[in-house]
Amino acid sequence: MKVKELIKLLNDLPPEALVVLSKDAEGNGYSPLATDGLGLYQYVANCTWAGEIYPTDEEEGEEAVVLWPTN
Questions:
Q1: How far is Cα 49 from Cα 71, in angstroms, rounded to an integer?
Q2: What single string gives the DSSP state of each residue in 14-59?
Q3: Are 53 and 45 in contact (CB under 8 A)?
Q4: Each residue of 10-30: b (16+ CB within 10 Å) or e?
Q5: Dihedral in degrees, nearest 10, Cα atoms 17, 8, 38, 18
Q6: Mean pLDDT of 60-64
Q7: What are phi and psi of 5, to 5 degrees?
Q8: How far is CA 30 from the centre of its chain?
């Protein structure tokens, strides 16, 4: 998903709703988005469902926004 697609989805939601991150695809736990829990990194996929992030000054991967949970 690209940021522009996320923005489009978020525009239809209540602006006062809490942002919560799922621990995994099965919903085995949840945590709210940290107050400063957003960052821009380089993402390199290891497979279709997981990968690694690197600082933006790295020249590998693609630009990605990472959302960090509170815990």
A1: 21
A2: -TTPPPEEESSTT---EEEEEEEEEEEEEEEESSSS-EEEE-TTS-
A3: no
A4: eeeeeeeeeeeeeeeeeeeee
A5: 10
A6: 92
A7: -70, -40
A8: 14
| Number of independent structural domains in the chain | 1
pTM of the model: 0.79
Range of the domain at 28: 3-69
Burial of 4 (0-12, 13-18, 19+ CB in 10 A): exposed
pLDDT digits (tens, 9 = 90+) for 4-53: 999 999 999 999 999 999 988 898 999 999 988 899 999 999 999 899 99
* pLDDT reported for residue 35: 87
Q: Please tell me whether residue 3 adopts helix, strand or coil conformation.
A: helix
